[in-house]
Amino acid sequence: MIVQEEIHCRCRVGGQVQGVGFRPFVYRLAVEEGLAGQVGNTSEGVCIELQGPVVAVERFLRRLPAELPPLARLTRLERTDLPVDETLRGAAFRIVQSTGQSGHSVLISPDVGICADCLREMRDPADARYGYAFTNCTNCGPRYTITRSIPYDRATTSMACFPLCPRCAAEYADPLDRRFHAQPVACPVCGPRLWLVRREEAERSAPPARENTQADGAIAGAVAVLREGGILALKGLGGFQLACDARRDEAVARLRQRKSRPHKALAVMLPDLDAARACCLLSPEHEALLSSPEKPIVLCPLRRTAGGDVLSSLLAPDTDSLGIMLPYTPLHVALFDALARGTSLPPALVMTSANPRGEPLCLGNREALARLRDEADAFLLHDRDILVRVDDSVTALFPGAQAGEAAPFFHRRARGYVPRPVPLAFADAQAPTVCGTGAQLKATFCLTRGNAAFVSQHIGDLENLPTARFYEEASAHLERLLEVRPELLVCDLHPDLLSSRWARERASTEGMPLLRLQHHAAHAAAVLAEHGHLDGALALCLDGTGLGTDGSIWGGELLFMELGELRWRRWGQLSPFALPGGEAAIREPWRLALALREALGQADLPASWTETERPPVEVWGADTMLTAACGTARQQAPFLREMLRRGVNCPLTSSCGRLFDAVSAELGLCLVTSYEGQAAIRLETLARRLDARPLEAEDAAPEALLRSPQAEGATWQLDASALFAAVQRDAGRYGAATAARRFHERLSGGLALLAARAAEATGARTVALAGGCLQNLLLARLLVRDLRARDLRPLLPLELPPGDGGLSLGQAAWGLMALRRDRLPSDADI
Predict the structure, then answer these.
(1) What is the pLDDT of residues 397-444, one digit of tens each?
(2) Which domains does the chain have, with CATH numbers?
(3) Which pLDDT score, from 0 to 100, does residue 99 have?
(4) Could you tell me which of 506, 505, 500, 504 has the C-alpha nearest to residue 479?
(5) Which H/E stretch holds residue 448?
(6) Residues linked to residue 454 through DSSP beta bridges, in sequence order
(7) DSSP class of 433
(8) Beta bridge partners of 568
């Protein structure tokens, strides 16, 4: 008989390994290999002790990273060999109780959409969880939004107040059960419960006694409200949502009126992929993203057909795309299943964030009943607390993806993805913590811990006190979960942003050093840091506005950056043009078109601004705001021309976003905006409806658009006035649609040529693409094409939005590099 040599070792595993079925997975693996030992959660991660034959232990360690549960992610696996323990010979492998201590390396899992097993149980009349709106297991359900602290155990979540019934307790304690240590595990006997409150009953907000709570009755009441064309507020995963029938114009119009949201697109939830295919033109990549565990909102081409399957035309009046998602919580499933009974058409619901007046999402029942009383006709409530506000993520297909890849391109990164970290290849596990405080619009913040960057969920626009409080609340919560305190703060160069003020106040109060990094340099650093590119690179940063180092308003910049050396400079830009009235020109794009006309010496107004000459876009032509704006523009044009001639309140900008606005206004598409980006969205929509005509010989060469530096220290420029004049020529020859398409083509070609000139001068062949204008997917795809055609390597953000939602990563990465190189300048300005 051959006696196999035994070994004893301890493994510490870091990453997303708590609340994802990792310990039962380890248990099953160890039992299969015949090993003794134990596994348990600690604040440093999962600790595994193994003892057994050398061959079995080595096989276990090979299988561990190769056969992970669906939601688990490893960032660290450290092995320490120990002396053989005689007490473990012949002992069974076991799972031990969690322990907590400071300095952990655990990653909290994001909230995950309902899995196929739980969905099957919900729809099985013989199952104890049939129709139960809070079904979950280790492979799905709430995580981040219910977590107070680490380690992730039931006692540290909002499920602590729901004692397990005997059946749930048995599942929770069985290592071979799918619900082993699934912290939110519950059933109708012991778990959260639903009830419905009508608007007129809002004063009586207390939940009924458990024995009087009828989940079926609450769902039935909610269905009745929706079928009557009413608006339902339901308590979702990371906050309240407002829902109405997406097939009924009157319901959608009522929701828009109550939310004061006349044009901005509304997301729609559909029951399954078949229903989604009936409404949108889906590629396999769209379907993969819709069905992924994260279940984000996905922007998909709208199928405009005649017949009963048509959704309301009021859902997305400015675009040919629609944001759709599938049910991601059991509550959504229960509601859709009830709506589907007795109807031939699949139900479709508008599902939008319940955040009145641009404030944060409502969290609690009483808060929602008070803040949403003017918006909702009824409230579908439950008694599981939401601890962290997290909105739905919004994605499109990645512009640089190859066929078959379903990589998300983020417009908003939140539920399903936060707090998943972005790896920082240039940092090590002992790197200090830095906080990037983000921007003003689409705000996020970023905390680093070791070699990982944690970018917060979408906070919103920091333009009111409630959103500023949410920012502080989210920052404090993530610091507690990560058990870190920043050693350095990095904010925007603009001193008046709320995020900059918060950084200054905290730096002063807590004695922290503070760096200020220019807005577009932070955009560039974010993309380069994500890709681990520290050497010299170019960056096209195309967005709305950001304060430049010269005090002017930037937004169409070509930078050269060496992230590893903490060096950057502005190499090129769009040529500056005026913003008549300053910020008023952002809300009223007709002012921008007038300014560019004045710069070209044109005294007349566009024909599209008259009531008799409308662009070939039916919905926009009937827009009452557009008609009224035409009259306003004609009336105020002489006054603004005088302002421009005298240079009164007409700051200059190089903003690419403002150039899009000017072109949109020139073509009569959008003269006054009701939400950020509206003018550019209408322009992109029109441009995508046809292929561009070939450019004429006299303006085919993008070289004609470039201006070389005329003085020492000046930059190369892409002529904004020439681009605008070309739009005017195209509109006169071919119409608005072709002019819109050719503008995109011409702009992309000119930017690619500008980058090529910079590459010749600097030797850099990599071009990072960043800024909110990259969320224009037509422009993003054209830039990728045109840069590659010039043998340049485009880099787009994979993990974060290209706009201000990803900017905080660049700030944090710059700060980390500054600490690493001991480069904190005395004036704290970069």
Answers:
(1) 988 766 667 789 999 999 999 999 999 999 988 899 999 999 999 999
(2) 6-108 (3.30.70.100), 110-268+330-391 (3.90.870.30), 421-531+804-820 (3.30.420.360), 574-795 (3.30.420.40)
(3) 66
(4) 506
(5) strand 446-449
(6) 447
(7) P
(8) 561
